Amino acid sequence: MKTLCVYCGSNSGSKPIYTERAMALGTRMARDGVALVYGGGNVGLMGTVADAVLEAGGEAIGVIPEQLVNWEVAHRGLTKLEIVGSMHERKARMFDLADGFVALPGGFGTLDEMFEMLTWRQLGIGNKPCAFLDIDGFYTPLMSMLDRMVEERFLHADQRRDLWHGDDLDAMLAWMREYQPAAASKWLDEKRRNALR
Hints:
Blueprint: E1 3-7, H1 16-31, E2 35-38, H2 44-55, E3 60-65, H3 66-70, E4 80-84, H4 87-97, E5 101-103, H5 108-122, E6 130-133, H6 140-151, H7 157-161, E7 164-166, H8 169-177, H9 190-195
Parallel strand pairs: 1-2, 1-5, 2-3, 3-4, 5-6, 6-7
Helix pairs in contact: 1-2
């Protein structure tokens, strides 16, 4: 694993521990020689992770839509900053650059980006590991929702398990390095699907 895409908030959140753990992730990535791929911002947890990577001597690659550059949130001290035309281009480019994906706490954008990667993997477009690095139980309710999707037969149990969730940075990185994608089909009811054709 040479590059890791980190999705996280453009705000810092309500608790200092969010910033502390974002800094710890960035520092660890730099020490392990893993380059950061992220949204290119200088604000919130995004800026915190990037600054921590850079301060520890690592490489930080930002991908940012032109609109956000114009809003003056682009980080100007990165190893490399790529400016793209749209959010769609941003997600595709980050996918190309990254060997895996991690979500720290964030809002709509964080979930949108991570769930698009999970959907692509489910559809066979990609086979890269996805992890939610939890901080102070932030993602626990979301994991309960994913379990509900399995219970209600909207999500295959193997695909639910094909996602790492926890608060242990060492365990997460070890899982990502050894990752083998699930072979489960997206379709839970093959006969029913065929009958609808």
